[in-house]
Amino acid sequence: MNAVERAVEACATHVLQTGQSTCIRYSEPGSWTYGFYVCWVPGHIFVGGDIGSITFVHCQAFSSMRSAMEWLAHSEDDGYQLSKAKVGTELDLPRTRLHIEELMRQAEEYGEPTAGFADLLEQCVEGNEAAIPALLAASACCQDYYGTESYGFHPRFQLACIRLAAKAWLAENPPLISDEAVS
Asked: Where are the alpha helices (H) located in the chain, listed in sequence order?
């Protein structure tokens, strides 16, 4: 049996069902820069847009849109939350070094400041992963290199954006019954 035949057999009794999802767009009005969608279905959060794509799976915590947004908004444990997306958060030192070299080349070409590149490259060569994010954040030479998101810290950047969206959603959608009223 080939893949198409297997799919036809597996989905033979499937029907379209609605009402089991919610999708929001989080962006600046009239702009898509860093804009993204957050879509909930039971057990899953799918995020996609200008910040890239990431999927979180947590059946117990994502039973409703509210529970998913609360889970995203109220945790500061990046490692645990990102484990639910099965993404790596390690810095890719060789890739980061190549990108820093390219930034330095561009800065030299356009006459922009290059102070700080030597320290960054030295940390890459030494494999001092822990020092690189702080150096990047403090370095005038990499002001548009926001958080090394393409080089190992991208999932943390995505999570920070998603947390902002979750907090905004919760602010716009207060619970219908307060916790005090239930007690």
From this structure: 3-10, 65-73, 78-83, 93-110, 117-126, 132-138, 154-172, 179-182
Question: In the structure encoding, which two tokens stand for residue 145, read together?
Answer: 């290199």
Phi, psi of 96 (to 5 degrees): -65, -45
Helices (H) and strands (E) in the chain, counts: 8, 4
The residues near 180 (Cβ < 8 Å, ≥ 6 apart) are none
CA distance 7 to 57: 23
- Retrieve residue 109's tokens: 């070409």
Digit-coded pLDDT (tens) for 75-132: 877 777 888 887 765 666 677 777 778 877 887 888 877 777 777 777 777 766 666 6
Q: Return d(Cα 119, Cα 132) in angstroms, integer.
A: 9
DSSP state of 153: I
Which residues have C-beta within 8 Å of that of residue 128, sequence separation ≥ 6?
none
Q: Which residue has the tokens 């030494």?
A: 126
- 3-state DSSP: the chain helix, strand, coil percent, rounded to 5? 50, 15, 35
What would the two tokens of residue 72 be?
């995203």
Q: Does the reported pTM lie above 0.85? A: no
